[in-house]
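Re: export button greyed out
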Amino acid sequence: MSSQFGHAFRISTWGESHGGGVGVVIDGVPPRLPLTEADIQRDLDRRRPGQSDIVTPRDEADTARILSGVFEGRTLGTPIAINVTNQDARPEAYREMETAFRPSHADFTYQAKYGIRNWQGGGRASARETIGRVAAGAVAKKVLAELCPALEIVAYVKTIHELTAEVDPATVTLADVETNIVRCPDAAMAEKMIAFIKAIRAEGDSVGGIIECAIRGVPAGLGEPVFDKLEADLAKALMSLPATKGFEIGSGFAGARLRGSEHNDAFYMDAGRVRTATNRSGGIQGGISNGEPIFCRLAFKPTATIFQKQQTVTTTGEDTELQARGRHDPCVLPRAVPMVEAMAALVLVDHALRQRGQCGM
Amino acid sequence: MSSQFGHAFRISTWGESHGGGVGVVIDGVPPRLPLTEADIQRDLDRRRPGQSDIVTPRDEADTARILSGVFEGRTLGTPIAINVTNQDARPEAYREMETAFRPSHADFTYQAKYGIRNWQGGGRASARETIGRVAAGAVAKKVLAELCPALEIVAYVKTIHELTAEVDPATVTLADVETNIVRCPDAAMAEKMIAFIKAIRAEGDSVGGIIECAIRGVPAGLGEPVFDKLEADLAKALMSLPATKGFEIGSGFAGARLRGSEHNDAFYMDAGRVRTATNRSGGIQGGISNGEPIFCRLAFKPTATIFQKQQTVTTTGEDTELQARGRHDPCVLPRAVPMVEAMAALVLVDHALRQRGQCGM
Amino acid sequence: MSSQFGHAFRISTWGESHGGGVGVVIDGVPPRLPLTEADIQRDLDRRRPGQSDIVTPRDEADTARILSGVFEGRTLGTPIAINVTNQDARPEAYREMETAFRPSHADFTYQAKYGIRNWQGGGRASARETIGRVAAGAVAKKVLAELCPALEIVAYVKTIHELTAEVDPATVTLADVETNIVRCPDAAMAEKMIAFIKAIRAEGDSVGGIIECAIRGVPAGLGEPVFDKLEADLAKALMSLPATKGFEIGSGFAGARLRGSEHNDAFYMDAGRVRTATNRSGGIQGGISNGEPIFCRLAFKPTATIFQKQQTVTTTGEDTELQARGRHDPCVLPRAVPMVEAMAALVLVDHALRQRGQCGM
Amino acid sequence: MSSQFGHAFRISTWGESHGGGVGVVIDGVPPRLPLTEADIQRDLDRRRPGQSDIVTPRDEADTARILSGVFEGRTLGTPIAINVTNQDARPEAYREMETAFRPSHADFTYQAKYGIRNWQGGGRASARETIGRVAAGAVAKKVLAELCPALEIVAYVKTIHELTAEVDPATVTLADVETNIVRCPDAAMAEKMIAFIKAIRAEGDSVGGIIECAIRGVPAGLGEPVFDKLEADLAKALMSLPATKGFEIGSGFAGARLRGSEHNDAFYMDAGRVRTATNRSGGIQGGISNGEPIFCRLAFKPTATIFQKQQTVTTTGEDTELQARGRHDPCVLPRAVPMVEAMAALVLVDHALRQRGQCGM
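Workaround output, generated via the alternate export path:
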């Protein structure tokens, strides 16, 4: 299936950049939970284009409509369908993509896979695809608020290019993240990042970076042995976001350079609760949460669409040059922060419901 | 499900370190393919304990028996069950784990999840669990040999601690990898790695590292848009291996520090075939293979079991000290190489069969 | 999952009787197939309310809109979302169902399961739920026309109450079925059925019956051993339709009264093709199609909603009486014919794609 | 997948009639439940060949071995693998099936599907396949005993050919069923059935019949709207058993001949509990259990293997005659009773765990 995620809390997303809209159907939602369109809109507003002057100027309100599964403000337990229409579509700006493949985009691979593609705005490979994820993630957060009330998910921009922020993942809050348009809670570094992104955009270029995600208040016991390890499902969820190139949990790649005697997290008792003195495990051991905070990092490449002339080939197999038009983010990270949160929430709610099903949490 | 992987080619593994054995049932295997126990044994021998003096001395032949799904040397299309018995089990060496949790192991989290655990040899969290993966991966390789005859998967040790090998992923072969016991195709560096692992073991300590995997000859068009992107499924597959802490594809974390104009892979025509001039994408664009080699890297932490006294807690909530006994790898990477290959093969065969189903490859 | 069906061709339906509409997302559709809204509307028109004077007068155009997955009249391979709005909703006609459970309806069981329900028009348990099935079935038929060009699915009303038609399942056509409003290809019996349904409706009562389905031109080899036998998947698909009470294939319950020597279907060669002299197997042996026509029958109970006073209980646990208002079918079978076809098509397309995936059909 | 069943409680069966044995892997079992090999053996003994003189004389002890997932007599929450070896295999008795297809067997369809088959004893299509189901069903019953302590599943032979028993499904017990070898709790009719089966066998012929299943003490709320209705999942589960031709629930096919005013089950209050005055619904409304007993019936055709000469064709496409040898049941129903119970248990445990996961039962 190209577009389904989750087992107990399963989402099915749909939609292309240009066309009838985008959306998601969510099956398996627990009944009787309060849910409104405003709950969903809050996160969609954080990912929508046009929200600041360092993101794409495409003008989309991205207004969510709940079409089913909610009655008198509460979930019914039946599928929740959420739709968002496309409003500011400009297919003509993509006309040259009809006949040439954009470098490092999905144009060529979709054509190779399906023998057909919607070249308008990237079709299904557009970042508009993530609207369904973010909407479903907002519902997941409402469910988690009930099932795991202590749980908090806070993602933020850690690095843009060579600029790396100082952030304490143990204490950073959503409010800290939302204080600036680049979504980096280190105010001084955020200013530098914003200036850098603007400069890069002025050059018609783009830039990548790293998002860090802290998940605190996770009950011990979520995650499955073997294949559906919690870190494996987080890796898949986050590496399924567009433009991602790497994933780390806990000590990550740096952990590969430590000895066991340096890396192991000693256990100790803290007011009757088992805790670890350090957290190189990143809150997960043997694929299962241990109650410590989960910390992970996600690397994003620079946006593929740049406003410079590039070598490429046509759909009929000739070498050519292409210079992009259209509206694009010079850096995807500010808008990717709510996507990271959404995917993390989808993984956690799925594991929480599976745990309740099998073990009666 | 704790122990299932794949959609079209679905494996179900089972088994604990100490008990009736370990194994796998594989469903969805195409019919009429040649398959023998020797095909499976070859890879099991590469992962088995006791194979060299830098791995655990636990003495297991790990002899695979095919119990079903094969008739007169050919697959039937019905489920293939493969069993391996546990022979050199020594539960008494784990007796103290009955009452204390090993640091950075899964003892505590299994207890937190299930309220019960098999403390003998780590139970289901033992690396013996990977026998089912490697056996299934061997079957997957046979299927791929038919479906994608040009496809080659070569994994190897790239880094042990601070020692990093020089390897050309475009040309390295399985034979190169198998020339030494650490499975690093850079002969000079391999010697240093072996000496280092022996020294670490003599100290009762352990060490981590990085495995790189090159997948060449992949047809363009494998992978799915959105959630089941090929890199997302590889990330999940590889991050589900024990002791992994990070995953990178193509440019990886370093790609986050490049500009779009530096990172994009220009397309060009090469004898009628669309190629890319560089391969920072790592062979995958928009979640779908583009026909270029897939390169990825996987970080492993140092083995959690060390022969030094460590702080921990008992199952009844008291602080205590624990010093491991038992038989353990000072470094998991040499034996993890065939596991990485197996997981990569399982991802690719699943996507190849799904592609044939939907698009008629 | 409450609302997903299929493996390779997977549909996710959503929607309640009164609310934002109903619809379906279809994932796994092969690319490049011609598909228009008219292809879908044709079958939706056959199931829509208000189509004749023996069905419910609820006035719904049930106009299908394709929101994604189709580009310039061809499928993209990405999810196809189809929406239908609810127009003639009259929640006030269901106000007494807010506080009392309708006998033999799903009001009580939804309340018992979820602790909440949308009482307007039966919510998710309304027959409007089947719009998503019929729309998806229309897409399935388009795929089958490509994959199995000889395949034909013809369902029809065989029995209404005590009135049973004479129909030859080997030759009956869709055109025969559509010659009258009860969808029974035996013209004389159809007239009696229509008169009987009108008489029953005049009494404020309802009536059940049997639909037969003939599936001809099925290639040999579809269906899976063991659990996903073709007849098992047909049984599930058809028994998931509202108001069904029984399913038979081939000889059915009558076959239980035969001896093996009377029941077995002898094989013989017919112009180079293996055929059976009789077809008590109903076209399926060992769960797999044998190339002969598949015949099955589905029993429907009388519509639960009748316009007579009935004993029931309130949501607060008191005995009470209830007399339904609202608009209802006195007999569900005429509108159920396209639902049966749709579910049969969904089963067959799923097995055809699975067969191509595993065995390379 | 040919051989997987269930979502939350998922089983993977494997094995052929002649070969390394048969078995099952069960994933998703709740932890800490008592489970022994004797729990499984009890039901395997009820399905094993050679148990009486009206079943096949093939001599198999069918001894179950639990290889994983159980520790010190309790479930671990990890996969439970159960193996049974084949002992009394006689491939030579099937030699003529290598070149000719048995009428109404799966020989031809397996060949058509896979292009290969294990002709020894029917391979995967042998009734030995059901050992995995019955073993898993025994585990399911242990889980249900914990989750739904009032739940009872009692299946029995209702009809053999024209002989139909009088049984009260509301009160019949397992002990009643086990009083005779035909598993019919009407003692007088059981004697006639046994005599009839012996007579039929003496003629080298075979006979079918009907099994009824009563499931009492089901909590209200199990089952899902739309596709995974409880009756739909029961229909699939039971119609996946070998030799089945029809399924009915509640009023069944007879319900198609009633009016709504005759068919509806009035609700009334009984000591604070919602009950129905009649039970034509068969304990399920809108796909969800209502707390009343579930009653269903399953039609079995006569065994395909008879000891009479039959017309058939060879694998190379010539008309021929075939007379079976080997060891076969003249009537499958006595041994099918525990299979029906097992499949019913697997459906119920899956829905109970799903309900707990989503709704927190």
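The first strand of chain A starts at residue 4 and ends at 5. The button fix ships in the next patch.
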